[in-house]
Design brief:
about 350 residues; alpha+beta; Catalase HpII,  Chain A, domain 1; nine-stranded antiparallel β-sheet; 8 helices; about 30% helix
């Protein structure tokens, strides 16, 4: 059976509840606990989530020519090549040894993107923020707040305890996966497989406006060298930065290539906008390639690039085109919280954060 026609975007697809501002304020307070604890302990402010980077890559994104009208939208309406920065990370808000295994993240900043922008989005860039899982751990910001408060209480816990707990949780999660059960909650607490981030497929998890339509995004490794790393686990038992070292060693010789794919919403019941814990099944809403990302062999931990990207930039789903407006409760909550985290880093570190091509402030 062929997929249904894609759903047209309209503002009333979102269900904005009256208590969202209160929840967002509490999220900022809880993130402050994480941010301040880490900054006090280390003397340096980091991101409130995905604090530890494993690699900073520079490459290109090439938009396909001849896309059908429903895919030729927003950034992808015009064929051509853009420079990109890519940041590989792990999702904790503190800098942990890599033996604490957590879900991987991939943030992409696309440069020189013309068009009407989202409110407050400086410069001419488009950000995509993804994780190596298909669903979010909570259906809405209020439920996520409960999980975040638990994580905030563990931010300054002894590292050895976290390493030991992670080992146990990995075993439990593997046992569940073996019988067809995957737990996003266990993964977020340290039970994720300790996989090589270069071989992973990443998902936006939450939906976005896609010009005239609604979509989720994915980035998948397609070059042979990357695909061979899919599922490969890294032994980090005696190396606190084992993932970073592994990525750095491999990217010195890899011609890396990923597909950027779009999944158009085709049924609002089966592919809801407001609940990111519901997976949009590919057989009902297939992913389709719209662009290719390439990164030539390079030093993935080059000091100048790490300083420019990891310290002086932020990645936010709310940085970009209005044609790719983030949708749903979780995405609405991310707007103020991402900005709050960046402003904290800027204030504590005395380091201006701005978009490439935008004025420092």
């Amino acid at each position: 059976m062929s997929p249904a026609d894609p759903i047209r975007y309209r503002p009333d697809l979102e269900d904005v509840t009256p208590d969202e501002d209160r929840t967002i304020a509490q999220l900022n307070e809880t993130f402050d606990t994480i941010l301040q604890t880490v900054a006090t302990g280390s003397g340096h402010a980091v991101r409130s989530v995905h604090a530890k980077a494993h690699g900073i890559l520079e490459g290109t994104l090439t938009v396909e020519a001849g896309l059908p009208p429903e895919l030729a939208q927003g950034l992808f309406a015009t064929p051509g090549e853009h420079r990109v920065y890519m940041r590989l990370s792990t999702n904790a808000g503190d800098i942990l040894p890599d033996a604490v295994s957590l879900p991987r993240g991939l943030a992409v900043k696309v440069l020189d993107v013309p068009g009407p922008r989202l409110p407050g989005a400086e410069g001419a860039t488009q950000d995509f923020v993804m994780v190596n899982g298909t669903v979010f751990q909570a259906p809405n910001a209020e439920k996520f707040l409960g999980s975040l408060k638990l994580l905030a209480k563990t931010t300054d816990r002894i590292e050895g305890v976290k390493v030991a707990a992670s080992k146990v949780l990995r075993g439990v999660n593997k046992a569940l996966t073996a019988v067809g059960v995957e737990s996003a909650t266990l993964a977020a607490l340290g039970g994720a497989p300790n996989v090589n981030p270069l071989g992973e497929t990443y998902y936006s998890v939450t939906p976005f406006r896609y010009g005239d339509y609604v979509a989720k995004f994915s980035i998948a490794p397609v070059s042979t060298a990357l695909a061979s790393l899919t599922g490969e686990e890294i032994d980090a038992s005696d190396r606190p930065d084992a993932i970073r070292e592994t990525v750095q060693a491999e990217m010195r010789s890899i011609d890396a290539e990923w597909e950027f794919r779009v999944q158009l919403c085709r049924d609002l019941e089966r592919q809801p906008v407001e609940d990111p814990t519901v997976e949009w099944k590919e057989e009902e809403a297939p992913f389709v390639k719209v662009a290719t990302i390439r990164a030539r062999p390079q030093d993935s931990w080059a000091p100048d690039r790490v300083d420019a990207v990891d310290e002086h930039m932020r990645f936010s789903v709310w940085t970009g085109l209005d044609a790719h407006r983030p949708l749903g409760n979780i995405n609405r909550a991310r707007n103020a919280t991402y900005r709050h985290s960046a402003e904290f880093r800027q204030r504590v570190n005395g380091c201006p954060i701005h978009e490439p091509g935008a004025a420092s402030r």
